[in-house]
Amino acid sequence: MTTSPRLRPWYRPMRSRSRDEEHRSATPLELFFDLCFVVAVAQAAAGLHHDVSEGHIGHAMASYLMVFFAIWWAWMNFTWFASAYDTDDDVYRITTLVQITGALILAAGVPPAFTEGDFTTITYGYVVMRLAAVTHWTRAAIGDPAHRAATTRYAVGVTAVQIGWLLRLTLSEDWLAPSFLVLALADLLVPVVAERPGMTSWHPRHIAERYGLFTLIVLGEVVLATLMAFQTGTNAGQQGLWPLAADGAVIVFALWWLYFDRRIDVPTGLPGTLVWGYGHYLVFASIAAVGAGLAVAVDRERHVGHVGDVVVGYAIAVPVAVYLLTLWALHVRGHGRGPLVVAAFPVTAALVLLTPLGPAAAYLIAALLFALVTLTVVDRQRAIRAGRATTSP
């Protein structure tokens, strides 16, 4: 007896999907997964905003980078796994919902991580997410003999690292930062080791779409967080915030434009894939941090923050510069762009980092990004004209 293709089974063997599969696109479960994860992103950005606004710069940076690593790494691992092994049976859906539950637990632990340095709840949420991922990898090891060596290494490696994260909770405060670095490196090394027997069959266009969609969702969180900050200010009678709101909009629009200026291609070799996939930690984290920086600027305009103009400027300039440099490395350099555009990205990043030393840093950053977007548009039109000239009879 066979199952109707319109009916989803309770369980089916987990076979690897083809890299050549046509019309491979994000599923409703993947989109739901992203939306739930962005709750944790919003909490991390809010913690960064409040810490920077209060002048706790070092604590803000360390807490934010650690919290965002947990969010990004769990999201990334599910994304690549689903690209290769999404069976969409009920067991797969339930296991993924457990991962989402872990993300919500993690989000609940973000405030105490920033205010008290207590990462207990975040660790529990992270371990829930990752052990659910072990269930996925175990199913893949059973159902896909061709990639059993890789999937087994994933299951064993992820389990071992999660034991390390739980043991970290027993360490004294002096060992928390070094142990985080060691365990984060161990997490990063699991795919490096696991994929060497033979890469899993993730779908390049599907991965590009998934990363693009998460970029959109993080940008949406920035828009919402910034809007709420401006709304709070205007409700308090601060009508002078409108110019800053306009500049914030230009900055966010430019970040979107630069990421989606051309089609995104994912490298297919293991080294290039790892660099591309891991590099997006900086893309996602910097986008969310821009929203936190704009909120700090609103606090400064409202006279409720405790930092000066230079710190406010760098709260926006640093993540924007990181974003530009990462995008340059992943999507611009060596991707058929004109030499002027290739040079413009790092030059613009350097100029952005200088803006806090002068007046009105946010306005200058918006102007620089507008100029960079304009340059990419001109370069793209040049490439189109050159292509037409080449193909004309």
UniProtKB/TrEMBL annotation:
The chain crosses the membrane at residues 31-49, 61-82, 94-114, 213-230, 242-260, 281-298, 310-330, 360-378. The keyword Membrane applies. It comes from the Bacteria. Pfam families: LtrA. Keywords: Membrane, Transmembrane, Transmembrane helix. This is Low temperature requirement protein A. It comes from Micromonospora deserti.
